[in-house]
Write a structure and sequence with these properties.
This protein is an alpha/beta fold. Helices cover 32% and strands 15% of the residues. The protein has 5 helices and 5 strands, in the order βαβαβαβαβα. It has a 5-stranded parallel sheet, sandwiched between helices. Strand 4, helix 4 (129-142) and strand 5 form a beta-alpha-beta unit. Helix 2 (49-60) packs across helix 3 (75-87) and helix 3 (75-87) runs parallel beside helix 4 (129-142).
Length: 184
């Protein structure tokens, strides 16, 4: 089982709040319910130090019920999440899964220039900030946890299927692209 679930809910706060409410309802009554962060009324914005400290603390020390972090797919919010992950230190023994709701929206790098050469399988050197941050989070977790997974799901996967693969296992400075590799 995973001890931490990071749920990427969408681009606007209303979607994050809706996802929070649904998750809260789904675990209501569990004997060992997970902590759900950030709270309904907040997000991982850089000006909310109380919430950032709470997420950092719970990330370092998840409760026995686990931890669910629900955030928007926004480069600023993802940068704050990445900072909390780096600040958590040693993640050995941790099992973390990232669920990307509507992974064809915001997560996919759409910054490719017209000169992009698909025949060379070039990974992007200048992806969108949201794509960069997400790939950096995945890279950090995959290099430090006992297990980490990224699962993107969507009803319209065309953009995901057209995402270029990395040139090699090392990928770019931001990590491997989000091209589906394991299953569709």
């Amino acid at each position: 089982p995973f001890d931490t679930v990071i749920l990427l809910s969408g681009l606007i706060d209303d979607l994050r709040k809706q996802t929070y409410e649904r998750m809260s309802d789904a675990v209501d009554g569990f004997e060992l319910a997970p902590d759900i962060l950030p709270p309904h009324s907040s997000d991982l914005s850089t000006d909310d130090q109380v919430t950032l400290e709470s997420v950092a603390d719970r990330f370092r020390n998840p409760s026995s019920g686990g931890l669910v972090i629900i955030v928007k797919k926004n480069c600023t919010v993802l940068a704050s999440l990445l900072a909390q992950i780096w600040g958590a230190g040693d993640l050995k023994g941790r099992r973390i899964i990232i669920l990307d709701d509507e992974s064809d929206h915001a997560s996919v790098d759409y910054s490719q220039s017209p000169e992009y050469d698909r025949t060379q399988n070039d990974i992007d050197d200048n992806p969108t900030l949201t794509n960069q941050r997400l790939r950096e989070i995945i890279g950090r977790l995959s290099g430090s946890c006992d297990a980490s997974w990224y699962i993107g799901y969507t009803a319209t996967p065309f953009a995901n299927l057209l995402t270029p693969e990395a040139r090699d296992e090392a990928g770019s400075q931001f990590g491997l692209s989000l091209c589906p590799r394991d299953f569709l």
